[in-house]
Design goal:
Length: 277
C-alpha cells in the first residue's frame, strides 16, 4: 500500500513538473548571457557538463568557460566540446585540495586578466544516502567537505578575480548549486526510509554559507545565491527523476540570467521560484 502511494506521488509530481520544465531553448533570453567569464566546477558529467554544453551553444556565448574535472583525461565528452570551442578551458581540479584550487585560480587569472571572473558556479558535489543505521563519520565529513566546505574555500580563493569583475562594473555572481533536500522548512522524504543524513546536512550547511557570503560580499557588488536544479536524471539523481539535464539546465541558465541585485542571498528553484530555507 505504501509503495503504491509513493508511485502515485511520483506520477503526480512529474505531471506538475512537466507544465513548466519544457523551456524553449531558442527563446530570446537564451541567445546570450550576462556573464563573459564563467567557472563551473564538477563539469565532467551531469548538470555541470550540460551547463558547459548549453553555454557553449549560445549564439553569443561567454568569452571564457572554465570547466573543472578531477580527472580531465577521463572527461571524454567535455574534452570533445573543448576541441570544438576555443572558449572552453578544461582544467584539472580536486575541490577538496587547496593547492589544486590555488592552481585553478592561477590558470583562470592567466586567461581573464584584469576582466576578472564574472560568474562562479559551485556545482561539484557528491551524495552518500545514509539512514541512521548506516551513517558514518567518514562519509558525513566527506559530504560536508565537497558539498559545503569546498564551495566556501573556492569562493574565498576566487574572490580577487570576482572583485576585479565587480570593480569593472560587470554583473558578478556566485551560484551555489544546492538542493531542496537541504531545506529545513520543506523537509520531506523522497522515498520511504531514505533520510539521507549526509547529503541533506551538507546542503543545509551550503545554504547557510550562501547567506553568509552574500551578507559579506554584497558591499563589493558581488551577489551570491543558492539554486536547486530539481530532481534530475543524472548519476546523483535517478533514471526516473522529474527532469532531464537539458530541461534542468535550460531553467538554471534562464534563472541565472534574470537574477538582479535584490535577489542576492536567496534560495531558488531551477525555474526561478523562491525556495524556503
Amino acid at each position: 500500500m505504501m509503495h503504491n502511494e509513493e508511485n502515485e506521488k511520483k506520477s503526480k509530481r512529474k505531471k506538475e513538473v512537466q507544465k513548466w520544465t519544457f523551456y524553449d531553448l531558442f527563446s530570446e533570453d537564451t541567445y546570450s548571457m550576462n556573464y563573459s567569464t564563467v567557472l563551473i566546477t564538477g563539469a565532467n558529467r551531469g548538470i555541470g557538463l550540460e551547463l558547459v554544453k548549453q553555454m557553449a551553444s549560445l549564439s553569443d556565448p561567454p568569452t571564457h568557460i572554465f570547466a573543472t574535472s578531477r580527472h580531465p583525461d577521463k572527461a571524454t565528452i567535455l574534452n570533445e566540446l573543448a576541441s570544438k570551442s576555443s572558449n572552453i578551458h578544461v582544467i584539472e581540479c580536486d575541490v577538496k585540495n587547496e593547492e589544486s584550487v590555488a592552481q585553478l585560480v592561477s590558470q583562470v587569472a592567466c586567461h581573464v586578466g584584469s576582466n576578472g571572473l564574472s560568474l562562479l558556479i559551485n556545482n561539484a558535489a557528491i551524495a552518500f544516502k545514509h539512514s541512521l543505521s548506516t551513517v558514518n563519520v567518514h562519509d558525513l565529513m566527506d559530504n560536508y567537505h565537497v558539498n559545503a566546505v569546498a564551495p566556501l574555500m573556492i569562493t574565498k580563493q576566487m574572490l580577487p578575480l570576482l572583485k576585479l569583475s565587480a570593480e569593472n562594473g560587470r554583473k558578478t555572481l556566485v551560484v551555489n548549486i544546492s538542493s531542496t533536500l537541504g531545506s529545513i522548512a520543506k523537509y520531506r522524504k523522497i522515498c520511504v526510509g531514505d533520510y539521507q543524513y549526509t547529503y541533506r546536512a551538507s546542503k543545509a550547511a551550503l545554504n547557510m554559507i550562501t547567506r553568509c557570503l552574500w551578507v559579506e560580499l554584497k558591499e563589493s557588488k558581488i551577489s551570491v545565491v543558492a539554486i536547486c536544479p530539481g530532481w534530475v536524471q543524472t548519476d546523483m539523481g535517478a533514471p526516473d527523476a522529474d527532469l532531464t539535464p537539458t530541461e534542468s539546465v535550460a531553467g538554471l541558465l534562464s534563472t541565472i540570467n534574470h537574477l538582479n541585485e535584490e535577489d542576492g542571498g536567496k534560495f531558488f528553484t531551477f525555474d526561478g521560484k523562491p525556495n524556503p530555507w
